[in-house]
Design a protein that fits this description.
This protein has helices spanning 36-52, 65-71, 92-100, and strands spanning 27-31, 56-60, 77-80, 83-87. With 101 residues, the chain is of the alpha+beta class. Helix 1 packs parallel to helix 3. The radius of gyration is 16 Å and the shape is globular. Residues 4-14 have low confidence and may be disordered.
Length: 101
């Protein structure tokens, strides 16, 4: 594929970005395995981020001592651009508003 003309190369499609969402946003879901609230939070984060074209990541507190020490009583925790947005329950409208303002 390295020898192919750029006309024939395809790049991976990127998620469409909602027009009123600032670029360079990132949602982080801090969770642990077997946590039903974490599963519920992930559903909301996935939906909102997909709708708005915002990237998101998940981090497991059982794999990161610093995250465990900081958040173990609050999981799931949602960070928006590295700042704590919420914990325990994720409100879809509130997350959507935080990402579009």
């Amino acid at each position: 594929m390295a020898d192919m003309s750029s006309l024939f190369r395809r790049s991976a499609p990127s998620a469409p970005q909602a027009p009123n969402v600032p670029r360079d946003r990132l949602v982080t879901l801090i969770r642990k395995p077997g946590c039903h609230l974490c599963d519920d939070a992930q559903v909301v984060v996935e939906k909102v981020c997909a709708d708005l074209g915002v990237p998101w990541e998940k981090k497991d507190i059982t794999q990161d001592t610093q995250l465990h020490d900081q958040y173990w009583e609050q999981i799931p925790v949602v960070l928006v651009d590295g700042e704590q947005h919420t914990f325990w329950r994720v409100n879809e409208q509130r997350l959507r508003k935080a990402l579009t303002e």
